[in-house]
Design goal:
CATH topology of chain B: 3 helical TM bundles of succinate and fumarate reductases
Distance between the termini of chain B: 54 Å
CATH class of the largest domain in chain A: Mainly Alpha
Strand content of chain A: 5-15%
Oligomer: heterodimer
Number of helices of chain A: 9
Helix content of chain A: 25-40%
Order of helices and strands of chain B: HHHHHHHH
Number of strands of chain A: 7
Number of domains of chain B: 1
Bound molecules: protoporphyrin IX containing FE, FE2/S2 (inorganic) cluster
CATH architecture of the largest domain in chain A: Orthogonal Bundle
Helix content of chain B: over 70%
Mean pLDDT of chain B: 96
């Protein structure tokens, strides 16, 4: 099939950028979206032009590097699918596709489709950990975790940190990302001890990194390639209230 | 005070003040519906309500403070959120956000404009349509005042419009305050979304019924 692409091109941070039109010819329905872009890039290189720069790494939906807003939806809108796992069979011959970078104040554009997501790292550094003494290896079952709690924590831990929630949010907020870590660790005995400091430190770091506030549009959950549920935001709100009395 | 500056803290203050305003709306509706019992209903209710001026003023100050906090943070959070999203997508498709959730600040400000007008009219008696007088029992004749004003189609229409704005504000506001308080889980999230819309619609229709019944000539002087 043949497609018309409109891709955001921007030579560097703070440079003006614009959508450029490209033709993707003879696209196989079995290709992934990134493989389709690889072929477009090969053509561009042959023509002596600058290839489209985009983030990617694992290409199997687990690393969270790929980050493109496709036709107005982060990762392209197929439920629970990253761009790298999105296949061209979801498109039709003759389609026009708009490809843009994540857009948020906290995600400055580095080049073309690559944005600087270190704001997410700053949130994680502020509290996305548990403190413990190192030393001899602890007995595996020394701390018992009920299965329901373990499952709940695992659901939250599914977040791959791609930032689609921020890209989708009308407020450029990273609340879903932050809440997933706050909820995961608060649900586990190892994380409970620091729950109050964590929720404050992480939400403050979110604010400082330039992310907006949550106003419960739930756009984030709809765009999340891992289906992280906004119930974790409710949990974060509860953890925050508990912290007020500590 | 961390709650006054933090992202989540300010949302909680918005949520609590929003809940107080909803509580007021419920009580106000019950009070207003005494109009269906005619002059003896609403005039007696109004007289009882104002029989203790210090209490009336304490209540007004409390509600004024709640709405002031709600507006201050509403404006502040909205400005921050607009700044955090440069909104530069050439194509952006919302999957979940609604007209109501995206326009909270505008429906809120229109409700505020209505509150100012409403107070100016029926509390201050400062608009030309208002007739003040006493009824046969020497009570302020609230019934005559309301029925006369709502007899004017334009005024009734303004009230209907304001109630539609309130409906939009609350159809997102009710599920939103529950989420902000953390009173939510995977099962309740969709249920509260629907419930919020239903409750807002019922409130809207109940409020609209007063000018509607008067315009239809079912409540007469
Ligand atoms: C009778 C009047 C009002 C009622 C009952 C009401 C109720 C509510 C409720 C319940 C919420 C949800 C709070 C939450 O998400 O936790 C809300 C949010 C909001 N209200 Fe109001 N409100 C009223 C008037 C106003 C006014 C006058 C404004 C004007 C600025 C306003 C602006 C907002 C905004 C911007 C939000 C969204 C805040 C956010 O999600 O970040 N509201 N309101
Ligand atoms: S490239 Fe790793 S998740 Fe897409």
């Amino acid at each position: 099939m043949n497609l018309t692409l409109h891709v955001w091109r921007q030579s560097g941070p703070n440079q003006p950028g614009k959508l450029e039109q490209y033709d993707a010819k003879n696209v196989s329905p079995d290709q992934s979206f990134l493989e389709m872009l690889d072929e477009v890039n090969e053509e561009l290189i042959k023509e002596g032009k600058d290839p489209i720069v985009f983030d990617h790494d694992c290409r199997e939906g687990i690393c969270g590097m790929c980050s493109q807003v496709i036709n107005g939806v982060p990762h392209g809108g197929q439920e629970r699918t990253t761009v790298c796992q999105l296949h061209m069979r979801n498109f039709n011959d003759g389609d026009t596709i708009y490809i843009e970078p994540w857009r948020a104040l906290a995600f400055p554009i580095v080049k073309d489709l690559i944005v600087d997501r270190s704001g997410l790292e700053k949130i994680m550094q502020a509290g996305g950990y548990t403190s413990c003494h190192t030393g001899g290896v602890a007995d595996g079952n020394a701390i018992l975790v009920p299965k329901v709690d373990a499952d709940y924590a695992m659901d939250a831990a599914e977040c791959i940190g791609c930032g689609a929630c921020v890209a989708a949010c009308p407020n450029g907020s990273a609340m879903l990302y932050t809440s997933a870590k706050v909820a995961q660790l608060a649900a586990l005995p190892q994380g409970k001890a620091e729950a109050a400091q964590r929720v404050c430190a992480m939400t403050d770091a979110m604010q400082e990194a330039g992310f907006g506030n949550c106003s419960n549009h739930y756009e984030c959950q709809a765009a999340c390639p891992k289906g992280i549920n906004v119930k974790f935001i409710a949990r974060l709100n509860r953890e925050y209230q508990k912290s007020l009395f500590k | 005070m961390r709650i006054l500056t933090s992202s989540v803290g300010r949302k909680i203050l918005m949520s609590i003040t929003g809940q107080l305003l909803i509580l007021f709306i419920l009580i106000h509706l019950i009070g207003n519906s005494t109009i269906f019992f005619g002059p003896n209903g609403i005039n007696a209710y109004a007289e009882h309500l104002h029989s203790l001026p210090p209490l009336v003023w304490a209540f007004r100050l409390f509600m004024g403070a709640a709405i002031a906090v709600h507006i201050c943070y509403g404006v502040m959070l909205t400005l921050e959120n607009k700044a955090a999203n440069p909104g530069a997508y050439a194509v952006k498709k919302n999957l979940k956000a609604s007209f109501a959730s995206e326009n909270m600040i505008w429906t809120g400000l229109l409700v505020l404009a209505f509150i100012v007008y409403h107070l100016l009219q029926f509390t201050v008696h400062g608009t030309p349509d208002v007739v003040v007088g006493l009824d046969s029992a020497n009570r302020p004749d609230v019934f005559r005042m309301v029925v006369t004003s709502f007899g004017n189609g334009l005024i009734a229409l303004a009230y209907v419009f304001a109630m539609i704005m309130l409906f939009l504000h609350l159809s997102h506001g009710i599920p939103s305050f529950l989420q902000t308080m953390g009173w939510n889980n995977e099962k309740t999230i969709p249920a509260f979304g629907t419930g919020g819309k239903v409750i807002s619609a019922v409130l809207m229709l109940a409020y609209i019924s007063i000018p509607a019944v008067i315009l239809a000539g079912l409540l007469k002087l």
